[in-house]
Specification:
By secondary structure, the protein is of the alpha+beta class. It is built from three helices and six strands, in the order H-E-E-H-H-E-E-E-E.
């Protein structure tokens, strides 16, 4: 008779282990259900959470000065070569007057009206991709790019403004720059944007 008692004890211990295992599973399931219910209760609101404002820093676009409203002062052709034209205006021309001349050159380039400015249109039309216009205040330093011997005003560049028309990839691209000595230039417009007709 002792055998049935051992078998019965073995069955009881299996039963106890199964009950304990089921109890742990039910307890874990109950805890998981309570956590899920809590999260759902907290997360389900009738109004959405406010959007967090994010600021994205974009690179600052260069600012270009407005087109001058004053008329350009007179200028004259001082020198020309197949790749560049040197122009001179009055000695005391203001920066705004220099800008007005550069804009006048830009308009003439796109309208093909250089002849009206006493600049050979044919020279501009037959340029090798690009032509440079160098604008000087007075004629004292105007020969510095091509004169024989030492430059008349020293070794630095003394132009008041530069205009270029054409490039190797775009025959209509142009660039206008107001110059303030060797280290400071002011671009007058975005050379990558199409020319806006006045």
């Amino acid at each position: 008779m002792p055998q049935p008692l051992i078998a019965h004890t073995s069955d009881q211990s299996d039963l106890l282990r199964r009950n304990a295992s089921q109890h742990r599973a039910l307890r874990s399931l109950g805890i998981a259900a309570m956590v899920t219910a809590s999260l759902l209760a907290l997360g389900c609101k009738s109004t959405p959470a406010p959007a967090v404002a994010t600021t994205t820093t974009q690179p600052q676009a260069p600012l270009y000065p407005a087109r001058p409203t004053i008329p350009p002062p007179p200028f004259k052709l001082f020198h020309q070569s197949p790749t560049s034209i040197t122009l001179v205006t009055k000695d005391n021309a203001s920066d705004e007057e220099i800008e007005a001349i550069l804009w006048q050159l830009r308009d003439a380039a796109h309208a093909h009206t250089f002849d009206a400015l006493h600049i050979p249109q044919k020279l501009v039309d037959h340029r090798d991709h690009k032509i440079w216009f160098h604008l000087y205040r007075g004629s004292k330093c105007a020969a510095e790019k091509y004169a024989d011997g030492p430059p008349p005003c020293g070794g630095s560049y003394h132009a008041a403004g530069d205009y270029t028309f054409g490039s190797y990839t775009n025959s209509e691209q142009d660039n206008g720059t107001l110059l303030h000595g060797d280290d400071h230039e002011t671009p007058l417009w975005d050379p990558d944007k199409p020319y806006p007709k006045p």
